Amino acid sequence: MQRIGVFVCWCGSNIAGTVDVVKVAEALKSEPGVVHSANYQYMCSQAGQQLIKDAIKEHNLTGIVVCSCSPRMHEATFRKTAAAAGLNPYMVEIANIREQCSWIHKDMQEGTEKAIVLGRTAIAKVNLNAPLKPGESPVTKRALVIGGGIAGIQTALDIADAGFEVDIVEKKPTIGGKMAQLDKTFPTLDCAACILTPKMVDVAQHEKIRIFSYSEVEEVKGFVGNFDVKIRKKARYVKEDVCTGCGLCTEKCPMKKVPNDFNLGMDNKRAIYIPFAQAVPKIATIDADYCNMLKNGKCGVCAKVCTAKAIDYTQKDEFVEEKYGAIVAATGFNPISMDKFDEFAYSQSKDVITSLEFERLMNAAGPTAGKLLRPSDGVHPHKIVFVQCVGSRCASCAEKGKEYCSKICCMYTAKHAMLTRDKYPDTDVTVFYIDVRTPGKQFDEFYRRAAEEYGVHYIKGMVGKVSPEGNKLIVQGSDLIANKQLKIEADLVVLAAAIEPDKSARPLATMLTASMDTNDFFTEAHPKLRPVESPTAGIFLSGACQGPKDIPETVSQAGAAAAKVIGLLAKDKLTGNPCVAQSDELMCNGCSSCEKVCPYGAITYADKEFRGPNRTTLIRRVAQVNEAICQGCGCCTVACPSGAMDLKGFANKQIMAEVDAICK
Amino acid sequence: MQKITREVLIAKAEELLSNGTVSKVLGLKKGEFSYDQTPAVFTDIESMKKDFVFDDFSGANFSKYLIKETKKGEGKTLVFLKPCDTYSFNQLLTEHRFDREKVYVVGIACDGMVDIKKIKNAFGDGIVSVDATTDTLKVETLYDGVKEIAKAEVLAERCRNCKSKKHVAYDELIGEDGEVISSNRFDQVDELEKMTADERFAFWQNELSRCIRCNACRDVCPACTCEKCVFDNPNSGVQNKAAANSFEEQMFHIIRAFHVAGRCTDCGECSRVCPQQIPLHLLNRKFIKDINGFYGDYQAGEEVGNRAPLVNYTKEDLEPSEAVNKGDK
Amino acid sequence: MQVNEYKPKIVAFCCNWCSYAGADLAGSNRLAYPAEVKVIRVPCSCRVNPMFILRAFQRGADGVILCGCHPGDCHYTSGNYYTRRRMALLFSMLDYLGIEKERTRVEWVSAAEGAKFAATMNDFVKTVTALGENKRLEDLRCKK
Amino acid sequence: MENSKNVCDEIVRISKVNPRKCMKCGKCSGTCPAYDEMEYHPHQFVYMVETGDIEPLLKSKSIYRCLSCFACIDRCPRGVEPAKLVEAVRLMVVRQQGNNHLKPDDIPELLDEDLPQQAIVSAFRKYTK
């Protein structure tokens, strides 16, 4: 029989306001196994914890029930308290009488009655608890960063600087990500390349960092501290270790009509290409969709001109398998497709462009060498209209846009408007906005400068329609302050397209068993207190894959994720979750049902000898659980028809005792 | 089609025993009455010639006995399997319940077995013997002399709705192999589904209230092969030898059906052995019908190694709410 | 307060990662739902054995609701997919036996859906209250 | 249109107000005691001058309804000084030939016991060339 102590917390008035805590403590005193019952204002406080420790010793308690806030809040706290007093931490159960009782009920009697039932339920469970001891597993001291944008770069650099090995997997031929495509960066207007490329070089030169460019994660197995990852190195048809990046091939390749994705298709590249001058690694890559040699075996110019003999048309995808202790997702974002926004005539007119395209038009390394020229006729535009919130904050049109605010558009639009006015004072710039959101250091000042010093016209209201007429674009929108509908003849319209997580994030999340929200952003373990960790142990989040972010925020989060990774890799051993599945070999049929549903492959089988009737021995196939791999979901326990498989800490008997206590 | 008789099987057994292919034969021997047969293991041909029986009452599914029998001693066990038995045989292999190498399967064609309970329902309990050599059975009764009844009328439920004449596992066959048959086995389930909830409730209350918890259905079921049944296991939380309250018995039948769902081959043994004639197969068939309807056709035991529907999923599976509302159109 | 007002007993199984957190969020946001609902925390919805549900009914529960992560969002990758199959078959069977299908429910509630949790519970309690006491499973074996 | 722009530039010049500084918060109109008397409210003055939409303002009676209490100037978070703009627009009107808004002949009718002398003097200053 257990000797159970019950501790009812007031949580100030949070619980005591709607639950008669004295009455609850009194009522629970007579439950089976309970030998001590107390109440206190703040159980989680130093004094409250001392109260529990003292009671454990004084009453020789073998189990405790704390009636308090959610176990998600303080279960760990009270487990530590119990452990400090010499009690096994898994002999602690929490009755959630705050979030699931006092905070949702107004009636004192109702709240008190429910709190008693919840307390009774926890007591029923703790009566069947057994001390548990967590297993230990080693930590592979190497991290994997998936995505080589500024988020991945910063995370990798920070981890590597702490002395741990890091691999970056980037699906494109170069690292750099979106930031490499940007012209200037708000709010300081320094050039993106000037601040990014040194970091790219740092990454390339860091002895602890390996870059897998033009590669993708193929398979992830294992668990925190012990991930086994298979990386696909896509065939680039150029020997990485031989290519010098001289670029001769990219000048001689006769296939000139390959849309240049780095410039968002606004100009062309060759079938063999280096994305941009400062690419890291600076290695050519052949686009197999366009290369004549690969398509029909005719050409071979690049191989002929390559003095280093780096071209290899027979190259195949290669697979690399590596072990990691931690994985960082830094998969970034993309602007959403404008195809469904017919009202802005994006697909009808070349002169309706997205902000990222505008970014390339302004960039000295872009398709126009930094001259602001209309894509349709190469003429300098004199009237530009920017439209904000295109697809953002779009709750009713889920198939078109996104419900959330994309966060960065207000600032980059202010930047674009300002830069345009700065470079081309003869150009009139109008911005249509719903709200201008500038919550960042020096952000509002920046936006106000655009409006006040650079004379950008900010119009509160949305553009409803853009119609091409001749070589003009008629922009029809509303001016809510003047209470008027406006028709503006523009030369260029720039859409601040909403951003969305990269498409590769969803399948990656599935591989990582990391959860995502409905928008395919990775979910953080706690929105406030654990914002850079995924709920899945060992998976960390960096940058816009977790939610829209600008560069300073991305870099801070990247550093924070790195700090968490370093904290993990610095450990030699990890203590596991002791609430894992356990197979009773005497009852196991060896039927493999459990193995089939186990998402981690934690169950294996062994032939074991058992005593049969009449002094015979029988050999039976039985399931065995690898406690280091098992994550304790309990799926196997239900798949098991005989009930041989049970889950420690959430045993069949315990849950049924809870059911009974609730229904009593 | 070659008529499978006792003599044919004894001759086959003699051949296999004498050439050393098998060391024992799992078969049936006569009980108190000719129609009342009980499983037996024969290690020599003499005892077989003496006690072995095989006739239209030899419907028992032997697969389950192989679990224990194959673990005893060396050598192979000979077993004669009807087409429906081979599905159970495969399902057990899928679940690694015995070693295929220790069994020699002789597949035997089957044109349906007779259910003695149906004869008793027709003529009362005092059945002395039944001559089933032709399609018209001659039934010798204690009180009314010899009666005749067509075999088709007293076929076991599962044979009336035979799902397959095809053997899915065998080492050799006697007689010709047949085909998978499209049967009407879900008709009764359909009828029940079409009823109102109240009518269904009344139907099942009438049926299940007769249960005496003798566990015969569980003991005979080739899918119920647990080392220890949850209902016998004190740690399961549902252990009960005798029901503590009436509820536990519904729980027994629901849980039993659930535990075999996706694994049940619809062999019909549960209904065959039920002394209270509860149509237990209608529970299993409901699960089979739902599985087919929700997740695509699936026949347990069709192939060794198939993944049962309940240890499988697709991302597009229907929601439980859709499952229960499927009938409400 | 009425003395004889019928209050159903509702057992809610919630997975630790999504729905239990959703229930907590409902609490944090002070979104009320009836006190009849009592939550049992399980690591994953796939931990819920049909036996637990029947056991609850056996011990006098009037409704059992099972909440888990949205399909695709399972903390353990695939647990809720198995739950979905198991419960689809179990609920269909209960319906087949003539038990009111409204007494059982599966709902996917994410950690962010406090409002959905509260709304679901309010609706479920309303539905079960309208059905009244759970008699059928109990009576299934007792011939009147 | 071109004329409007010139007028606007002139208004900006004489008022020394930069309407671009306005961030459309509406606090000026929120604080204005003559709000109900005005067809165009202080924030609209600022916006219409900024966008060059000046004709309606020149014709509006609102320019005479402003009390010049300077509450808007006092409270504007961006230091736009809307009242000065209103003043400037009014000056644009009354400075034109024959556009005095208050004539000496109108005074006797407006007099009452409580009206301070100073008000009459300041009204003349405000409404006439």
Describe what this molecule looks like in 3D.
The complex is a heterotetramer of chains A (664), B (329), C (144) and D (129). Chain A is an alpha/beta fold and 664 residues long. Chain A folds into five domains: 4-126, Rossmann fold; 142-229 and 319-332 and 502-569, 3-Layer(bba) Sandwich (FAD/NAD(P)-binding domain), CATH 3.50.50; 248-305, no CATH class; 334-500, FAD/NAD(P)-binding domain, CATH 3.50.50; 581-648, Alpha-Beta Plaits (2-Layer Sandwich). Chain A is 28% helix and 25% strand. Chain A has a five-stranded parallel β-sheet. A five-stranded parallel β-sheet of chain A has the order 20-27-21-22-23. In chain A, strands 2-1-3-4 form a four-stranded parallel β-sheet, with helices on both faces. In chain A, strand 22 (428-433), helix 14 (443-452) and strand 23 form a beta-alpha-beta unit. The mean pLDDT of chain A is 93. In chain B, strands 1, 2, 3, 4, 5 and 9 form a six-stranded mixed β-sheet that branches. Chain B has a three-stranded antiparallel β-sheet with strand order 6-7-8. The N and C termini of chain C lie far apart (35 Å). Chain C has one domain: Rossmann fold (3-Layer(aba) Sandwich), CATH 3.40.50. In chain C, 74% of the residues are buried. In chain C, helix 3 links the parallel strand 3 (63-68) and strand 4 (104-108). At the A-C interface, helix 4, helix 5, helix 6, helix 18 and helix 19 of A face helix 1, strand 2, helix 2 and helix 3 of C.
Summarize the model shown:
Chain A is an alpha/beta fold and 664 residues long. Chain A folds into 5 domains: 4-126, 3-Layer(aba) Sandwich (Rossmann fold), CATH 3.40.50; 142-229 and 319-332 and 502-569, FAD/NAD(P)-binding domain (3-Layer(bba) Sandwich), CATH 3.50.50; 248-305, no CATH class; 334-500, FAD/NAD(P)-binding domain, CATH 3.50.50; 581-648, 2-Layer Sandwich (Alpha-Beta Plaits).
- Mean pLDDT figure of chain B: 87
Measured distance between first and last alpha carbons of chain B = 46 Å
**How much helicity do the residues of chain D have?**
55-70%
What percent strand of chain D?
Answer: under 5%
The portion of residues forming beta strands of chain B comes to 5-15%
Cα shape of chain B: globular
Shape of chain D: globular
Largest sheet of chain D: none
Largest sheet of chain B: 6 strands, mixed
Number of strands of chain D: 0
Q: What tags apply to this protein structure?
A:
heterotetramer; B: 329 residues; alpha/beta; globular; D: 129 residues; mainly alpha; Fumarate Reductase Iron-sulfur Protein, Chain B, domain 2; 2 domains; 9 helices
